[in-house]
Amino acid sequence: MLYDYVFMNKIFFIILFQISLLFSEIRHLEIGAANYDASITSKSRFEVLYYTVSKLIEKFGNKGIIYLNDIDLSGLELAKKELDLWLFQNGFEDIQVETINDDFSNISIPQINSAQMAYPESSMLSLMRYSTTFAKLIDKANFGLKIIIFSQEPLVYEAKEFKIALPFSEVIWSEKPFPRQYSSRSGQISNKLSYELLIRKREPSSCFDLFKQTI
Question: Is residue 10 domain-resident?
Fold first, then answer.
């Protein structure tokens, strides 16, 4: 009887989760969105951003808001300009792009359901880890913050550090690498093996099991 109850409970949450996706919209924060030199004129530097947005559209649909955050104003404005153009050219005119020009630790976190940092420097992660802004971000992003890192060694280290800094959060990392688009500082696009670190607020056990099964 107990097994049947637990099984039915999981099925219920799976159905509820899938229904919630149908009615959700994109509410995404991209941290470090202008993390390449503004002097690079090649539009290929934004292919990584396009790839991220295309995956968000697959998951949440073609409506919503994407927030781009960076301290580099010129690079941030250029990223918004190119993403607006890409969305228009692909018929995604119901997705708005807004910029947040400030150091991440100083910003007010908007209403979001996901966030991402692609290939951040370890020094940046160290500064963010214990900030109140970071804790607020994890609390607001229902689908968590995804951090993409090149190699496994710093990934495991960061995962352990985040578990200490955020004891009430779940920290999950990929054990095997996967190819992902990467734009070098010269603007060249390549597929590199990357690892993902996902940090999200802790949910009841049934919801946690559901999350693991559906992502």
Answer: no
At 206, which CATH number?
3.40.50.150
Give me the tens of pLDDT residue by residue for the chain, a chain 215 residues long: 555 544 555 554 444 444 444 447 999 999 988 865 444 555 567 777 888 899 999 999 999 999 999 998 988 998 999 999 999 999 999 999 999 999 888 899 999 999 998 877 777 777 777 888 888 898 889 889 998 877 766 677 778 888 888 777 888 877 676 666 555 555 555 666 778 888 888 765 544 444 443 33
Q: Give the total number of structural domains in the chain.
A: 1
DSSP 34-99: T-S-TT---GGGGHHHHHHHHHHHHHH-S-EEEEEEES-HHHHHHHHHHHHHHHHHTT-TTEEEEE
For residue 154, the SS3 value is: helix
- Measured CA to CA, the distance from residue 128 to residue 133 in angstroms comes to 8
For 167, residues 6+ apart whose C-beta sits below 8 A from its C-beta are none
In a domain, 7, yes or no: no
Residue 128 lies in a domain: yes
Report the amino acid identity of residue 139.
Answer: D
Q: What is the pTM of this model?
A: 0.75
